Amino acid sequence: HFRISFSYLCPASWYFTVPTVSPFPRQRVAFLGLFFISCLLLLMLIMDFRHWGASLPRDRQYERYLARVGELEATDTEDLTLNYGLVVDCGSSGSRIFVYFWPRHNGNPHDLLDIKQMRDRNSQPVVKKIKPGISAMADTPEHASDYLRPLLSFAAAHVPVKKHKETPLYILCTAGMRLLPERKQLAILADLVRDIPLEFDFLFSQSQAEVISGKQEGVYAWIGINFVLGRFDHEDESDAEAPQELAAGRRRTVGILDMGGASLQIAYEVPTSTSVLPPKQEEEAKILLAEFNLGCDVQHTEHVYRVYVTTFLGFGGNFARQRYEDLVLNETLTKNRLLGQKTGLSPDNPLLDPCLPVGLTDVVERNSQVLHIRGRGDWASCGAMLSPLLARSNTSQASLNGIYQSPIDFNNSEFYGFSEFFYCTEDVLRIGGHYHGPTFAKAAQDYCGMAWSVLTQRFKNGLFSSHADEHRLKYQCFKSAWMYQVLHEGFHFPYDYPHLQTAQLVYDREVQWTLGAILYKTRFLPLRDLRQEGVRQAHGSWFRLSFVYNHYLFFACILVVLLAIILYLLRLRRIHHRQTRTSAPLDLLWIEEVVPMIGVQVGP
Ligand SMILES: Nc1ncnc2c1ncn2[C@@H]1O[C@H](COP(=O)(O)OP(=O)(O)OP(=O)(O)O)[C@@H](O)[C@H]1O
Ligand SMILES: [Ca+2]
């Protein structure tokens, strides 16, 4: 005779106990069996939920972290399922080749290819850079392929030979080539298209060698950084670090600023156009808006992004210095003529330049005119002298060069600054990363005021970043002032704007517009994968389906077992009641046999 009582931890008024049952041996075994099975199922269910729970964002973040750590390992060149892609960035100051690779597409049409930078057996990124820029081949276009050979041989040595035939090669040129006359551009490209296939068997054709527009360059940079930051992921909105969504179901994307040697780009996502612009500006704004679909199926509109992007040719660090020197030369010669002076016409009567370090002497030559200059290292005066180079028109909304700029919500935005934005803050000043205007201004001012002799001494003692060369030391003062003017006076970023990161590596990956370029150019590949391997996909979806049905099946089993237990208990209870009505004395009798009741009269 034993009592099964379940008293649940709940308010006293709810205390209840399950009636005592006296199951018979056979039934007792069956009952115990059912009870055991249901506990087991419940236990498995709880384990399952725990596992499910783990697959929610916290685990997803961890997965992403692991993936990033995984990216730092050497690329497994034995894995023949990997695909490779090459992008040559022919910049104004140099050319670099980036070797990318990606595993077979994961089958989810909403995902881009998971493209990463290849890493060699020492886990170093497979990238090679040469100087000067390809525009140096302007007068000898027949040597353009010779110029690029070191980069292509480098890539050929890293990509598995049997993969060369299916490895696309993109040669994309930026501002350096844009500044050449078109016929010179075409002559250089024609030489590449003709000669490279004679020596390398990469997947390469005429359409893969081009001078891209500044707009394309800006869009590619925007795609690259947002891909690396996971801002195109949609599934884990509840991810703790997820910033406010720009539109339902999408994560906020970051804007980019990219200042090269010759051109400057800015790109950032704009919400569907709310601001009503005057017709002229409306027209202009349309030209500056890039709308593109990152889905591999143009029908998937949730991957359509609307990005304000514009490029400023001649606003790169080096070219701006050229324009500055032109300006100073013309101003000085005009002043000399008007005032009968000889400033800068001889080394001992140099023009004092606030944008060069103190004591540094230099000579500016333009069409047989010569100007001797000497640095006087005054960062603030330098900034003031750069104002005319921003070429702002007098309307309030105008930005650099009088080009319309779509309003930026500085309180709800994040920007990444690349190239010169990174070099100017990191190489010499060592404050790359989170940008703080006043801190940068102070560090730049101090650097500018240092004597050139001190700077060269420190350079020899290796006090600056290994990337910093003498060219960097010489123009750091000018470029930091120019970058500062462009950011705050040109693009109207507040002086204490807190959401700008200057970067070259993000999660240990060099983020370049070249990554965005190959992501964009391969965005339809997944579709091809899907179509080619429909079977795999169908199988995949069947598997996923069955997995889901499994869970429903699972719940159904639990329900059935619990129902059986409840019915069983109710049946036992009915039996028990019937027994007590007909067999009450029996119980007492049983008790009497076992424990004689003293003084209790049993029976009539
Ligand atoms: N790692 C580096 N550290 C310091 N300076 C650098 C570094 N790499 C390039 N530079 C210099 O910074 C300037 C800008 O280089 P960057 O490669 O960004 O421009 P680019 O791509 O050649 O020009 P553009 O994009 O306008 O065609 C150049 O003067 C270049 O010599
Ligand atoms: Ca560049």
TrEMBL record:
- What is this enzyme's EC? 3.6.1.15
Among the GO biological process terms of this entry, one is: UDP catabolic process
Keyword Transmembrane helix present in the record's keywords: the answer is yes
Q: Where in the cell is it found?
A: Endomembrane system
Q: Where does ATP bind?
A: G261, A262, S263, L264, Q265
Q: What residue intervals traverse the membrane?
A: 29-47, 552-570
Catalytic center residues: E217 (proton acceptor)
> Which Gene3D superfamilies does its entry note?
3.30.420.40, Exopolyphosphatase. Domain 2
GO MF entry, a single one: ATP binding
Q: How does it sit in the membrane?
A: Multi-pass membrane protein
User: GO cellular component annotations, sorted alphabetically?
Assistant: Golgi apparatus; membrane
Alphabetically sorted, this entry's keywords are: ATP-binding, Glycoprotein, Hydrolase, Membrane, Nucleotide-binding, Transmembrane, Transmembrane helix
Similarity remark: Belongs to the GDA1/CD39 NTPase family.
Q: What is this protein called?
A: nucleoside-triphosphate phosphatase
Query: Which source organism?
Result: Neomonachus schauinslandi (Hawaiian monk seal)
Per the UniProt record, the lineage of the source organism begins with: Eukaryota, Metazoa, Chordata, Craniata, Vertebrata
Question: What gene name does this entry carry?
Answer: ENTPD7
